[in-house]
Write a structure and sequence with these properties.
It is a single chain. The chain is built from 4 helices and 6 strands. Helix 2 (about 70-80) packs parallel to helix 3. With about 150 residues, the chain is α/β, with parallel strands linked by helices. About 30% of the residues lie in helices and about 15% in strands. Strands 1-6-5-4-2-3 form a 6-stranded mixed β-sheet, sandwiched between helices.
C-alpha cells in the first residue's frame, strides 16, 4: 500500500468441533478432528498464505508467507520430508479457501487424509469432488485466519 497503513484486528477465534461443517462424503474420524482443530490453531499464528500439516497433535510441516497456496503446501511437504516425517494419515489446514483443487490433489499424493479450511471459493465444489473421489474428509469453518 503506497503511502498507507494496514490495520488488522487480533484473531481471537478458535474453532471447536461443533463449528466444523463436514462437506465430503467421508466424515473425519475423532482423531482427525482433534488434529484438524490443532492444525487450525497453528494456522492462525502464521503469516498468510499458510498451510499446516499435522498428525497426532504434532506439527509435521508448515509453509507460510508465500504468494501461492501451492507454494506454501510444497514448502510444508518439503519441511516434513527433511525431518523424516511420514505424512500418511496426516491432516492439512489452510488459513483461507482453495481457489482450485490443486492443493487437495498435492496433499492427497503426499498422504494427507483430511482437510480443514474456511470454504468460500467459487470452486469449492471441485475440491470437494476431488476429496470424495479419493476418500478424503474435508470440513469448512466459515472463518478465515488470514494474517498479514
Amino acid at each position: 500500500m503506497l503511502n498507507g497503513i494496514l490495520v488488522q484486528d487480533y484473531d481471537s477465534r478458535q474453532e471447536k468441533s461443533e463449528d466444523l461443517q463436514p462437506v465430503t462424503q467421508r466424515q473425519p474420524t475423532q482423531d482427525e478432528i482433534e488434529d484438524l482443530l490443532f492444525a487450525n490453531i497453528c494456522v492462525k499464528h502464521l503469516k498468510s498464505n499458510t498451510i499446516v500439516l499435522v498428525r497426532n497433535r504434532q506439527l509435521l510441516g508448515m509453509g507460510c508467507g508465500q504468494t501461492s497456496r501451492v507454494d506454501a503446501l510444497n514448502q510444508a511437504i518439503t519441511k516434513a520430508s527433511a525431518f523424516g516425517f511420514d505424512l500418511h494419515g496426516a491432516v492439512m489446514a489452510s488459513d483461507a479457501f482453495f481457489p482450485f483443487p490443486d492443493c487437495v490433489e498435492i496433499a492427497d499424493n503426499a498422504g494427507i487424509r483430511a482437510v480443514i479450511q474456511p470454504g468460500g471459493s467459487m470452486k469449492d465444489n471441485e475440491s470437494i469432488a476431488y476429496c470424495d473421489t479419493h476418500d478424503m474428509a474435508m470440513v469448512f469453518t466459515g472463518n478465515r485466519h488470514f494474517k498479514h
